[in-house]
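re: ur question from yesterday

yeah so i grabbed the chain u mentioned. its 208 aa long if i counted rite. heres the sequnce exactly as i have it in my notes:
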Amino acid sequence: MKLIAIVGTNSNTSTNRKLLQFMSKHFSARAEIEICEIKQIPAFDEPEDKYAPKEVQELCERIAAADGVIFSTPEYDHTIPAALKSVIEWISYTTRPLINKPVLIVGASHGLLGTSRAQTHLRQILDAPELKARVLPSSEFLLGHSLNAFDEEGNLVYADKLKELDEIFEEFQLFVEINNRLVQDHSFKTEQNKKFTWEQASQGGGVQ
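ran it thru and got these structure tokens back, copy pasting raw so excuse formatting
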């Protein structure tokens, strides 16, 4: 199974990066997890020539080729970072590779709540018509007190959270397998969704 893991911040010291690095190593026998940074992607601004920057196109190609996507998001002022929202806007503007793509949301924060509000907002965003990702339902991984969560080798030291992460990842793998079989059987729906525009929707001709 090939997965893309997106570090949902442009911070150089984020524990969300550490979380994804640990997941990539810890689950290496069960999945290939490629970690993608968003630091190099410019803020969204609709280009005059309608072509997204090369960095955006490359990220979209990686998402399209993957079996599933993992987002690890911090929480800034009760929501996701502006940098992550900007990247998602680029994704919805281009080839829309998240449509029908299985997604797992995780998050790490210095405080107790572990990005609970940010994860809720990210779920709402990913359900937009131009994104329409299939987010693993009824599951969330919230890593609080993340500054002390990893040892010098990058291993997750909280035994209870490690057990929880193992269970959620196993559930996500099953979710990916089931979802991708369904999508293969109904691939025309994916292509219909990718052609959605708000202009058509306002005229009654959008994808229903």
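noticed a couple things. Residues 2-202 form a domain with the Rossmann fold fold (CATH 3.40.50.360). also Residues 198-208 have pLDDT under 50 and may be disordered.
anyway ttyl
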